[in-house]
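call fold target=Phosphoenolpyruvate-protein phosphotransferase
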Amino acid sequence: MTDRTVLYGIGVSAGTASGPVAVVTPAVGIDEHEQPCTDPDADGERVVAVLEEVSASLTARAEHANSETSKAVLEATAALAKDRGLVRGIKKELKKGTGVTKAVHDAVEAYAAKFRKLGGYMAERVTDLYDIRDRATARLRGVPEPGVPALEVPSVLVANDLAPAETATLDPALVVGIVTEAGGATSHTAILAAQLGIPAAVQVKGITEALVDAPAIALDGGVGEVIVAPNESDVAELEERSRRRAAALAGSSGEGATRDGYRVKLLANIGTADDAAKASGYDLEGSGLFRTEFLFLDRDSAPSVEEQTETYTKVLRAFGDRRVVVRTLDAGADKPLSFADLGEEENPALGRRGLRLSMAREDLLDDQLKALAAAHKAVPEAELWVMAPMVATVEETRWFTERARAHGLPKVGVMVETPAAAIRSSHILDIADFASIGTNDLSQYTMAADRMQGELAELLTPWQPATLAMIRETCRGGEATGKSIGVCGEAGGDPLMALVLVGLGVSSLSMAPGKVNAVRAALRLHDRDTCRQMANFAVDAPTAKEARENVLKIADPVLRDLL
Ligand code: PEP
Ligand code: MG
C-alpha cells in the first residue's frame, strides 16, 4: 500500500478533484529483438501503411472532438503522421538496415531535433511527433496503441505527459482531474484541460514514481497540489476548498469593477468563431484578444478575403455590441506559416515574427484589414478594435496604424510584448489608440527566457518584479496620453495578479472565459487604493516570490479561496 505523499507542480486549471487513479498506458518502445531491415521497399510500405492507419484513427478522433480547438489539434497531428519529410527520414533509416521500430524512433528523433531548434510552437509539436511514433510503434509490434484506458468510473488521469490527441477527446464526466509529470503551463495539455474545465496540474515531479499501487489520488488544480493515496481528511479538506471556492464565486456576475466602483472590463481570449460563440454565452464584456492566426495555421494557402470576412462577421455577431479586439496575424517563430515562410532563422523568437512578418508580407495584412473592415460594415453595432502583435518601435506603430486607419478601421492599437514598446509606450501611444499588454511574450523578452520551457517557469512568472516594472512603464505611457491599457496574456486570468495589474493602471483584462468569474470576484473584494498599494508592494519587492507573498498578505482573506 502506498504511503500518503504530497507533491507540488504548476496548477493550470482550477478546481479540486479526487478519485481512483487511471494511469495512461505507457508506450511500448523499440522492439529489442527485431530483425534488421533486409527489404527497405517492403518495410517502407509497411511503415507507410501503419502511419496511414495512425493518421486515419486521429482523424476519426477529430470528428468526435468536443471543441474546434481540439479538432484542429487532432487534425494537425493526423496531418503530421503523413508528413513527407518524416516518411523520407524513416525510409532512409530502413535503407541503412535499421529494423522497423528503431527506424521509426530514430527518424522521429532526428525530426524532433529540427522542431526543437525552431523553438516555440514547433517545439511544442514534438509531443505530437512522439505521439505518432508511439502509436505507429505499437501497431508495428501488434499491441494496442498507448493512451487513456477505457474508464468506467470518474477517475483522475495520471501520465508522464498527455498527448493533445488524448487530452482533446477526454470526457469530463469520467476524467475528473489530470496530473502530469512533464508538460508546461502553455502546453497543449494545459490549454485543453482548462478549456474542458478539468482541474489539472502539470510539472508534478515524481508523480509517476510515487504512484505505484496507489488506489486514489486527489488534486487542487488551482495551486498545483497533488496528494497520492489521500486520507479521508485530505479529501474532506479538498471538498471544503471546493465549497469555499463556490461560496467565494457565488454572486460573481455583471460588469467588472473594484469594490469602490472602478471599472475594469472583463474579456475573453478566443481563437476561432466557435470559441466566440461559446465565450459570448458567458457573463463577460466581449473579447480582448482574438488570435486570428488560428485561421491561418496548418493551411497551404491564406484564406481568401471572403472567407476571412465570413469568419470575422461571425465573431462580431456573436458578441453583438460588445467589444472585440482583433489581433492581426501573429505568425512566424512559434507559429510558422507554410505560405509565408521567410526562410530559416537562427533565433526565430527574435526573428521576423508578428508585425515584422506582416511588413514583409503586406499582402497578407492588407487582405486581413480588408476583411475586418467588411465584417465591421456587416455588423456596424460591434465595438471593433484592431491591434498588431510584436511591436517594438514608433515607426512600426505608425506603419500599422496608418494602414489600418486607411481601411476605415475605427480603433487601432498595438500589443506591448517587448521591453522596447513598454519603456517607450508614451511615444507609441501618441500614435496608437490603445495598447494591450501580452504578458506571455513580455515575460519571455524581459527575462530572456523561452516561454515554452517548463523548466524556466520561475523566470517566466509575471510576478517577476522586472516584468511588473515593464507593465508599470506601459501604464505610465497610458496615463500620460489618456489611452487605455489592457492585459491579454495569461497573467490577466490570475485573480491575485489581476489586482496588481489594476493597481498599475490597467483598465481591461482578457483571459480564458472560464477564469472570468474568479477575477471578477477578486476585484469586487478590493478597492482601487488597495490595488495600487499591492502594485507598489509587488514592483518594489526584491524577488518574484516576495512580490506575490507581499500582495497576498494585504489581500482579503476570501481571495485565497479563489486561487
Ligand atoms: C502574449 O504574448 O501574452 C499574448 C497574449 O500573445 P500570444 O500568447 O498569442 O503570443
Ligand atoms: Mg504574444
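return ok
The chain has a mean pLDDT of 91. The longest helix spans residues 40-63.
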